[in-house]
Fold each of these.
Amino acid sequence: MSVVGTSTAPDGQEVRAPVEQDPADAIDPDQLPDGLVVADEHGRVVRFNAAAARITAVSQADALGRPLEKALPLEDLEGRRWWQLTDPYGGLAIRVRQPERNLLLPGGREVLVAARYVRDEPLGPLHRLVVTLRDTEARRRTERSHAELIATVAHELRSPLTSVKGFTATLLAKWERFTDEQKRLMLETVDADADRVTRLIAELLDISRIDSGRLEVRRQPVDTAAAVGRHIQAHVASGQPADRFLLRVEHPLPALWADPDKVDQVLSNLLENAVRHGAGTVTIDVTPAPSPREGEETGTSVTVSDEGPGIPEESMNRVFTRFWRGSKRGGTGLGLYIVKGIVEAHGGTITVGRAPGGGAQFRFTLPVSAPAYLA
């Protein structure tokens, strides 16, 4: 096989000359990720690659040489036979392709099918029909994920909004019947539920930005140890005993440039998980660490460990996926997915494992990076 290369003649004119191509560079159709089926001018299958055999559950030996409608008996979603309906060999000669669409294999399995009509000359008879097949399972997984997200959000929104609506309607209708203390209690509940809705909306926006690669990081100097200390104080103020937390900081720490709001979001999520789902002492270690980013020597590592039951070994690889909630239900199951997205947006890494005390241990490492105006 040869391809055309170019060179320049003495008079400056470009000359196109054939360049030999190594036959070993030709693509083997069996290496293609999508199914490929080719029928000749008589409608008989002359190519049926390995992916097509896998998708259709028809062997290459059984498909080759057979009429296309026999080797690949497709139907549309209304049960009509696809090749009879489209009539690629006897239909309009101006057609050059069939756009991708869902069709059914025998047994009802859906596949994505597209076709290309190859003619030796415009409006001439069909010389070759090239068909591509793609499994719909990846698309179905995405659709299921979106459906789960919608269902989760609807469920999480319903509870606080019902509470807000109920209390406000009650207050408006019977304001004079309640004491000031009762009014205050109901308004505090409404305020807390409004905060819950706000957090959920923020999570959804974060997921949208993470999935689209648009999560912005505004780097500023961050005192990681001080940030951890603030979160510990917040837990103590909300009723947790102070001796439940152990903060260990190894000095000197490198000067870290990160998004302080997003670092707070990561710390808040990890400490809340340790407090809510773990047991015993929650230990937070802040240490220098090798940078996860090439070209930088140091970074900052934060390790959050508890002494609870830990995470089952078989669940370790699912912790950072959407909707993972572990053995205890509650929450949206989106927090750790967002945490991973934030850490990776900083160029960092996050891992999960078993703590020395037997509980869960999360460790994230951020590169020292540079100010936003120098990045």
Amino acid sequence: MRDIDVVVIGAGQAGLSAAYHLRRTGLVPDRGFVVLDHAPRPGGAWQFRWPSLTYGKVHGMHALPGMELTGADDRRPSSEVIGAYFTAYENRFGLRVHRPVEVSAVREGEGGRLLVETSEGTYATRALINATGTWDRPFWPRYPGQETFRGRQLHTANYPGPAEFAGRRVVVVGGGASGTQHLMEIADVAAETTWVTRREPVYREGPFGEAAGRAAVAMVEERVRKGLPPQSVVSVTGLPLTDAIREARERGVLERNPMFDRITPTGVAWADGRTVDADVILWATGFRAAIDHLAPLRLREPGGGIQVEGTRAVRDGRVHLVGYGPSASTIGANRAGRAAVTEILHLLEREPVAAS
């Protein structure tokens, strides 16, 4: 067992931001704090994105604190661009991320410490920054007959790009950014596509200003303050009406259908008797927070989420969640990383983070 002041779980945007601010306070990696990441290489969840998601298609990648991302080729896969950026960032600031390391549980220890149980041993820590994101918990809705479907079912988390859908009849489920991107790519090669969503998609015209962004974040933040599971910021902002989306709507690609009622061996069916045959059902139905390892601490509220004030878990002030709820955007993750460190320094009785 190793004693350490702060453990950071996750080396995506939020985790690296927190590590940067811990480093600036004078805490030394592997002595004052440690960053644990289960992924095989730098890049956070970005490293698992499909190859056709080029950097030019990414909706707003905010730079990590202290180092801009410059000269990126919009035609390169975002997984490569951001993976290289995160690698350079970790090296520049000497963050010494431990990977691949699996965290199985966080429990109460002795002397006010938390025990972080991992595949490389146990850490006894005074404070924890949880930055595990959502990529590891894809959400699969359940519908009657799902197990009888004879075709292929896959989730955005396993989306391979459009080539594998050539000549197939594909049902795409989900009205978010991923669902529309998948649909527009697949429509060019598939025999037939059908788009279904639970709600009518909401399109947003014009620039998304600072006031609108603050309002969207406030809506998500209100949920976590009540201890409800967070919604993504995108879920309350609507879909940006880009030229590509306008063109797809004109071609009939984005012709939305209401959610089907059941799945059949050969496709999907609605209560009114309508059916659609399909070879593939692609679930672009989002993700949930990957926080099961925190279960022994009993942080969840009756509403199913963890009640958070700022970044601090209300039920345990030693635990901070960054990249959770309102801080799930890249700029929000940066701010949350700094805010968490500021509070943790008070807990450790150190000086606050210097202004940048």
